[in-house]
Specification:
This protein is mostly helical and 82 residues long. It has a single domain, classed as Orthogonal Bundle (Arc Repressor Mutant, subunit A), CATH 1.10.10. The chain is built from four helices and no strands. Belongs to the UPF0175 family.
Length: 82
């Protein structure tokens, strides 16, 4: 599916990029943010971003987002049950 979004020409200068690069960064940022909020899984976020899972994990690092969706407390509880 293709969706068109109208943006003013001035937004491309925000990332100092051409429209194609801007759209790719926008997709990546959306995937990372939705993953960070727990709305989508890593694989779905990578699909949204249009990148491989490995590339998505690298993007999480770039955006300083943890690849783990559990809190330290949840992890400790899970480990205590084993």
């Amino acid at each position: 599916m293709q969706i068109s979004i109208e943006l003013p020409d001035s937004v491309f200068s925000a990332l100092r990029s051409n429209p194609e690069t801007f759209v790719q960064e926008m997709r990546l940022a959306a995937g990372v943010k939705w993953y960070e909020l727990g709305i989508v899984s890593q694989s779905k976020a990578a699909e949204i971003a249009g990148v491989s899972r490995h590339q998505f994990l690298e993007a999480l690092n770039r955006f300083n987002v943890s690849p783990f969706q559990v809190t330290p407390e949840e992890l400790a509880e899970e480990l205590a049950r084993e």
